[in-house]
Design a protein that fits this description.
Structural class: alpha+beta
CATH class of the largest domain: Mainly Alpha
Strand order of the largest sheet: 2-1-3-4
Low-confidence stretches: none
Largest sheet: 4 strands, mixed
Number of helices: 9
Length: about 240
């Protein structure tokens, strides 16, 4: 199976959670937006394909994945589809449900991080909602990050197999997603995270284990890994980063 990943150019965004899974598995995939325009690359061509992808069940927005004749959208839904095919989830129904549950919780956290710098409307620029963003981010750092990351720390503490991975003794796509989320939070709030991270040693250790995996390390060092930037989900605005 050769997968086609459709997502915006120039940002990691929610598509990065899919890239990490595909890269870890060594899967054959192409990120269509990066192709030359003559081959259908570019954001404009992707938007045109959005409505054409599946007339009966069209995706709402990128990312979406083409797998043969299937078109699948929503990051957690795509990972639920890819997990058993890429060997990134346990074989039992319980393992698959649990991993999907973890992924949905990560998605909730990512949405809250995004909304911290766009608290009024996605259609407004950050500079048009800075006072609201400052107040929202204060609550994110003081209340929401400890709640979410404290939860994942407890999951690792109670996980079988010595707490190495979230869903048990084997790496899953949820571990890759938690790695990406911690990396993004470190970029967005370096001062705040330096103060908060000592409370979550298991999450930090998981991050480091994922980063050291050969395929992930090679991907992170490659040009395929788009740098974090201020057009993305995780953004660094110094005025919002308070230790």
């Amino acid at each position: 199976m050769r997968y086609e990943l459709h997502y915006w150019s120039g940002i990691q965004g929610r598509g990065e959670y899919l890239r990490l899974a595909l890269e870890e598995a060594g899967a054959a995939y192409v990120e269509v937006v990066r192709l030359p325009e003559s081959q259908g690359g570019g954001d404009g061509a992707m938007l045109a394909r959005l409505d054409e992808a599946d007339e009966r069940q069209p995706p709402f927005a990128p990312p979406f994945l083409k797998a043969g004749k299937r078109v699948i959208a929503q990051t957690a839904n795509i990972l639920q589809f890819l997990g058993p095919r890429l060997g990134l989830v346990g074989a039992s129904e319980n393992a698959r449900l649990w991993t999907h549950q973890l992924q949905l919780t990560i998605a909730d956290l990512v949405n809250e991080v995004h909304d911290a710098h766009h608290p009024i409307a996605v259609s407004l620029y950050y500079h048009e909602q800075k006072p609201e963003a400052k107040r929202r981010t204060q609550h994110l750092i003081a209340e929401r990050l400890p709640k979410f990351l404290g939860y994942f720390e407890r999951v690792l503490e109670r996980a079988p197999g010595g707490g190495k991975w979230l869903a048990g003794g084997k790496l899953s796509y949820a571990d890759l997603s938690l790695f990406q989320t911690l990396a993004g939070l470190r970029y967005a709030y370096p001062k705040a995270m330096a103060k908060l991270e000592p409370a979550w040693p298991r999450i930090v250790a998981l991050h480091d284990r994922v980063a050291a995996r050969p395929r992930i390390a090679a991907y992170l060092a490659s040009s395929r890994r788009v740098p974090f930037n201020e057009h993305d989900v995780f953004r660094h605005y110094p005025e919002l980063d308070r230790a």
